[in-house]
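PT: before anyone asks, these are the final sequences, not the draft ones from last week. 382 residues across everything. Please model them as a single complex and drop the result in this thread when it's through.
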Amino acid sequence: MNEPNTGLRSRLVDVGVELVATEGVQALSLREIARRAGVSHGAPRRYFPTHLELLSAIARRGFEELAGRGAAALGDGTASPREQIATLGRVYLDFALTHRGMHELMFRHDLLRSDRLGLRDASLPVFSLLVDLVGRTRPDADARLVAGALLANLYGIAQLWTWGSLQLTTGADSVVPLLDAVLEAHLGREW
Amino acid sequence: MNEPNTGLRSRLVDVGVELVATEGVQALSLREIARRAGVSHGAPRRYFPTHLELLSAIARRGFEELAGRGAAALGDGTASPREQIATLGRVYLDFALTHRGMHELMFRHDLLRSDRLGLRDASLPVFSLLVDLVGRTRPDADARLVAGALLANLYGIAQLWTWGSLQLTTGADSVVPLLDAVLEAHLGREW
DNA sequence: AGGACGGGTAGACAGTGTCTACTCGCCGTG
DNA sequence: CACGGCGAGTAGACACTGTCTACCCGTCCT
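LR: through. Structure below.
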């Protein structure tokens, strides 16, 4: 009926992406995805031997989407390194807060425990880009260390903000001040 | 046989704490906890109407344990504010990395979504303490904002370190350099 | 003595992920 | 053309989960 021959494999992932956005991460049961894709509950097994592998494929879509947004926002990359880092931070936080279910899925412990080389290396290129940018912004410091700390900070803010802890405690109604504070902390005052 | 009359309620939580430490968070099914406590699977329902409430009670033990360690490490509180913050950071990271299952449980999204006023206010006093310490270390800045950013950074480092991302990328074999970098970033260079 | 009741048992139910036997249609080869 | 294999999906079983409900049994109170 709707796009019949897309191939079941990608259709299952499509359904999953849609489902996690509308219903949340707890709705991503194997059988529910199969139902919405219009196939029996045994069908996904041909493409994804286990439920976790299907979830990983859905999460990978999230990483790809995020990487695409980052690349688009960076444009030709003529902005200053510091400005590029700020852009990436904004893009990431915006993505995390507008796609909460997907963001939660992308960093689920059980997904990251298995799939050791699947999701991890999806986030590795963006990290080396970050290392490069940090290195050009703060030539004095250990770029990998600072980039790691910065990444952890962005992730932590996305999480704490998502479940409202930071709203209550900092009293802010937007992450922007927090993001600015984080950038200033790790990269130095914005001259 | 073993401590018979502790009251089933606390015994269930005991079993859960033990179980999450030895087997991980995925072993915390209602029925498994009941089995290990030597009761039928319907028994917990008298004290915890739902599985999530039992999990929340177990997680609460984690927050209490962490708060206890923090208080013990602070001692009489005569150290400098900066030193106290560093101590709290060390205690938190050490706890998170040695009690990975419990730490994962404490910050599970489904627990934090419900239980709105149960777990959250367990972590609120430590946050206001942090705000106070930050305010005395950096009187120039918005203490709540800096404390929030710092807390998010510690949390993010605990998570990323747990699943190995930071080890691979930063190449460090200990969190200590990262913790130092984070403290320096948010609180300024250590004079 | 008898009845209420806290506290635990046991079974049912719907839902889940995995496994296995099977069916159906298509394609290439004899 | 017939036929065998095979990719792809179906359907049912299994063990397990969380929740709900009916029941039971001992202890206390009157």
